[in-house]
Amino acid sequence: MQTPEAQIASPLTTNQASCPTALCQWCACGDEITCQSVPKHFKEVHGIKATNRSEKVECKWNKCFTVVLRNNFVRHIRESHLDHMRNRGHPSVPS
Ligand SMILES: [Zn+2]
Ligand SMILES: [Zn+2]
Ligand SMILES: [Zn+2]
């Protein structure tokens, strides 16, 4: 007897359909990330933790160098580097 779950495991994203995969360009990281995985990825891989929300973080994404508050960091990455517009998502991807 086959389980239906076995067939779902194939392609990419299901619940993240509106946010395409992007390559992380933080310090030449190169990992595949999505808007949804930004908080987890930057916390676990790059050590950007949410402990101090008023701490200033210099963005090391490619040649950005913008200093943002930790509180705004995830939004900065999504909006500036993943082209995710607030409330609208990605204009090139039908929602
Ligand atoms: Zn997105
Ligand atoms: Zn990365
Ligand atoms: Zn940046």
Please describe what this structure looks like.
The structure is a single chain. The chain has 95 residues and is an alpha+beta fold. The protein has a domain of 62 residues. The protein is 24% helix and 11% strand. It is built from three helices and four strands; from the N terminus they run αββαββα. The strands form two sheets. It has a two-stranded antiparallel sheet with strand order 1-2. A two-stranded antiparallel sheet has the order 3-4. Strand 1 and strand 2 form a beta hairpin. The protein starts with a helix and ends in a 14-residue tail after the last helix. About 12% of the residues have low confidence. Bound molecules: zinc ion (ZN) (3 copies). The site of one zinc ion has 7 residues, from helix 3. This is C2H2-type domain-containing protein.
Q: Could you say which small molecules are bound to this protein? A: zinc ion
Strand content: 5-15%
Biggest sheet character: 2 strands, antiparallel
Radius of gyration: 16 Å
Structural class: alpha+beta
Q: Which bin fits the share of residues in helices?
A: 10-25%
Low-confidence stretches: 6-16
Task: Summarize the helix and strand pattern as letters.
Answer: HEEHEEH
Outline? globular
Tally of strands: 4
How do the strands line up in the largest sheet?
1-2
Count of helical regions = 3
Spatial gap, N to C terminus: 36 Å
Summarize model confidence as the mean pLDDT: 83
Protein name: C2H2-type domain-containing protein
Organism: Boletus reticuloceps
